[in-house]
Amino acid sequence: xxxxxxxxxxxxxxxxxxxxxxxxxxxxxxxxxxxxxxxxxxxxxxxxxxxxxxxxxxxxxxxxxxxxxxxxxxxxxxxxxxxxxxxxxxxxxxxxxxxxxxxxxxxxxxxxxxxxxxxxxxxxxxxxxxxxxxxxxxxxxxxxxxxxxxxxxxxxxxxxxxxxxxxxxxxxxxxxxxxxxxxxxxxxxxxxxxxxxxxxxxxxxxxxxxxxxxxxxxxxxxxxxxxxxxxxxxxxxxxxxxxxxxxxxxxxxxxxxxxxxxxxxxxxxxxxxxxxxxxxxxxxxxxxxxxxxxxxxxxxxxxxxxxxxxxxxxxxxxxxxxxxxxxxxxxxxxxxxxxxxxxxxxxxxxxxxxxxxxxxxxxxxxxxxxxxxxxxxxxxxxxxxxxxxxxxxxxxxxxxxxxxxxxxxxxxxxxxxxxxxxxxxxxxxxxxxxxxxxxxxxxxxxxxxxxxxxxxxxxxxxxxxxxxxxxxxxxxxxxxxxxxxxxxxxxxxxxxxxxxxxxxxxxxxxxxxxxxxxxxxxxxxxxxxxxxxxxxxxxxxxxxxxxxxxxxxxxxxxxxxxxxxxxxxxxxxxxxxxxxxxxxxxxxxxxxxxxxxxxxxxxxxxxxxxxxxxxxxxxxxxxxxxxxxxxxxxxxxxxxxxxxxxxxxxxxxxxxxxxxxxxxxxxxxxxxxxxxxxxxxxxxxxxxxx
Length: 690
Fold this sequence. Notes:
Elements: E1 11-12, E2 15-23, E3 27-33, E4 39-45, H1 53-68, E5 77-81, E6 88-92, H2 99-106, H3 111-130, E7 133-134, E8 143-146, E9 149-152, E10 159-160, H4 181-184, H5 191-207, H6 217-226, H7 239-242, H8 256-263, H9 276-294, H10 308-317, H11 331-334, E11 368-371, E12 381-384, E13 387-391, E14 397-401, E15 407-411, E16 420-422, E17 427-431, E18 437-441, E19 447-451, E20 456-463, E21 466-471, E22 475-480, E23 485-490, E24 502-506, E25 509-513, E26 519-523, E27 529-532, E28 544-546, E29 549-552, E30 557-561, E31 568-572, E32 584-586, E33 589-594, E34 597-602, E35 608-613, E36 624-626, E37 629-634, E38 642-647, E39 652-658, E40 668-672, E41 675-680, E42 683-688
Antiparallel strand pairs: 1-2, 2-3, 3-4, 4-6, 5-6, 7-10, 8-9, 11-42, 12-13, 13-14, 14-15, 16-17, 17-18, 18-19, 20-21, 21-22, 22-23, 24-25, 25-26, 26-27, 28-29, 29-30, 30-31, 32-33, 33-34, 34-35, 36-37, 37-38, 38-39, 40-41, 41-42
Helix pairs in contact: 3-5, 3-8
């Protein structure tokens, strides 16, 4: 919080102002208090904008909308003045972090906490809709977690249920990734729009990742309208409750009362805001709010002690209750620059800046590397937020700084041959040579749990429930995050330490591709085999999984229904003797190579979008999509091995990066945070995307 400056009012209505909580191109939010000492957050429209009818109308509408909602789940309006030269709105001062802050600081919510937050938000939406309103901007920064539960704030773009959008298509005030398709397209929106936003909010709260991703606003909005949400990290029991909220058609979304009933937490369960570090955070902010309210207002008689300015600056620097906690900061209020341009979605602090342009004549320089000493015989690259977990040539596992490539830590007793798998964006599972399984935090390898009796040979995959491993006895075992065995079943596909199966989890299913070329899908709840296939290739060929389907290469490019009996949705036979490569799935498009041709097609309809020459692409490993670029490694007995990079938007080769070394190796590619990591002959580089 900053002290009042020249031109700031000393009083607004009954409120004496203490300091400035936030400011943007359209106005300011002040901290004030009334005659009883009760703190309030007061939003004020800039005087020079008060005469612009569209902004003034929005301001008045916010005041009326917020006052119309009678619910314990919103920030109460304490007073408002919408006439005259300086209109203002006063809301109760909410002491607590936003949901966005809480997830970033403390990690995703567990199942019980997510149910409590989701049910409370659904009840609040019921109250908002009962008032005849649609909020239209439900998102994590607009949800404050307080000692009494989550509060939805900011009715700046709320509209009556029968109201039309404010602006024309392309200018609709919608937060990328949270507004539904109909809002993105500038169409009429109703209560189902808030349900869609709630589904996106709960996805972030559960996984730490947004449901729709892209390197820029337009890419995110395209995913909302045409793509499929990324729900892989949702707990299996919550997936069927959250996924329907994100239906493209508003008619297929559940209602808030239905959501509240389905998400109701177990009786007697303590709410996340009532215990643990989040409760301590809220309590600290409440104490800080009381201190702020006790400060002398500008113009008051000064009391002995530190100066008012020093106190305000100190409290602001100390991270007391900031503008995001004030309950009134809106994207259109503080999230625009002075030119009125909507701010782009906030990237992770460790994300790289995409290239603005590129030359097809020269591959751009690597962001960092080469870093040597990695294991290329049994490669493993696992990005976890700011850390890249990698298998090293000496048999250990190391954590590299994703921004610089510098080694942060090394786990020497972890067996690189056993691989590792992410459990969530912060944690991974790895095993030692004795088969002890560990859950480790990515940024510092701090042990979260261990399973001494796991007898893990290879860590295949993981999710929030735990890890899935092959055992030294040749079985498939699930180990929970409490270190206990959940189930053990016979391996449905072939897997050895030297030639392990490929695996991933999605929608409560474990998808396996064995070294015998067979596929199998296992229910993660109890290990029951759901379906399998005959041999499709002569080795473990990774699959692409998303949108309820498994896409497999090999002797056909095939779309299987993930659940049920694995029904074949469609199949594309290969040309001649060549098999299909391992496919990649991104943005609703499926990328795969057959013979020397790269084919990009709609994953659902099979319709081809574009094709390009691919040369001799390494079939074992799928291409990698990041930003607007597609990366594929090529191998040839005649030409130098190379990385081919394609421009997805233009459907053509952007550049290739040829290796002059006579040494041959398989390419290992993975991507995260606007970087593509390339491992070749034990050397690792991080490369930019566009």
